[in-house]
Amino acid sequence: MKDSAEVVAVRARELAGSERVAGTIKAGAVGASAYVQIGSAKVPEALLLEIGNASSARSLLTSERSGTFKHPVFARKSEGRDEWTWVNDQPMHPCVGPAAAEMVASGELVAKLCEGVNRAMSSVGLTME
Length: 129
Hints:
Strand content: 15-25%
Helix content: 40-55%
Number of helices: 6
Oligomer: single chain
């Protein structure tokens, strides 16, 4: 399953707007689920560029958000958030979502998933006919 996520991660790294963001894109698997992760503690803006101010990719998909997000430019601890200087229309630059969509459209993701299922079945002595 990780192989299918890695296909998406490779393309997402190519689409990322910077090497800094691309370096945070990781593929992984837990049990029968695969995932692609973006962002890290050192590069938190990577996730922000991917999903904006949404709390998760899932909430982004179910919202009617535009392709922008807001963030503080001058956040002074001595003042409340309402007093900070904000940028309200920072463009999002998603790369994981578009990469996954490309891989699904091309059939490459489905092919990798099938390979993974076949390998898993073979490892326990099962075959597809």
